[in-house]
Design brief:
With 242 residues, this protein is of the alpha/beta class. The protein is 36% helix and 22% strand. It has 9 helices and 12 strands. 45% of the residues are buried.
Amino acid sequence: MKRFALIGNPVSGSLSPRLFQAAYAGRYAYDLIEEPSFEAAWGRFLSAYEGINVTAPFKLDAFGKVDVVAPSARLTGAVNLVLRTKEGLQGNNTDVDGVAGAVRETGLSVSDALVVGAGGAARAAVAAALELGCRVSVTNRTLSKAEALARQFSCQAVPLEEAGALAPDLVLYTLPGSAPVPAGLPLRQALVLEAEYKHPVLADVPCRQYISGRRWLLWQAVTGYSLFTGENPDVEKMAAVL
C-alpha cells in the first residue's frame, strides 16, 4: 500500500488524515509526522513515504530540499506538497489552488483583493488572487514585509492604518487566530476568506459572504491528493468530513 503523510509541528489536530480517508475510502495510508525539527521529519518521509504534505513551520525548508520545483511553488517560494517522481522529489504549492477553489465555488465575481498578512499563506493568497484576475493590495502590521511581498508579485503595499480606505470585493485574511484583528479593515462589502480554520476570528463579522478556511483546506487537498495518486478524490465525501 502506498503511504502518504503530513509533516509539521504541531500537526496533532489536523483534519488531513480524515480527508484522505474519505477521498479514497482507505485504499492508501496517511499518517501524521510531528517532529520538532525539519530534518527529523524529512528523514521519516524519505524512509517510508511516497509523498507528503508540508505545513508550518517547514514549508520554506521543504522548498530547499526538492529537485524539481513546480510553477506554483516557484511563484510562492514555499512547498506544501512533495512527491517522488522519476525526475526526483517534486515540490508543489497547492495552497494557491485552495484559495482559488474556495473563491470560485461561491460563484461571485471579484476584481479587487486585499491580502492581510505577509507570511507563507499570504504568498499563496496573492498568487491566487492574481490568478482570479484581481488587482491586489497587501497590508501588514510590519509595512516592510508587505512591501517585500508586493514587490515579488508586482502589486501594491498599503499601510495597515490606510487599508480601511480601500474598497475590495475580496479580503484574504491570513493572520493567525492568536493575532489581534486589525481595526478598520474594509470587510463589510467584501467576500472574506480566512485562512485560520481551527480558531477563526472573522466568522461573525458583517461582510458580503464569509468563507471558512476549511474550504481552502478542502480545495488544496483535492488538488494535492490527485497529485499523490493520479486519481480524482471523492470531493463530496471530503466535504462531508468538513
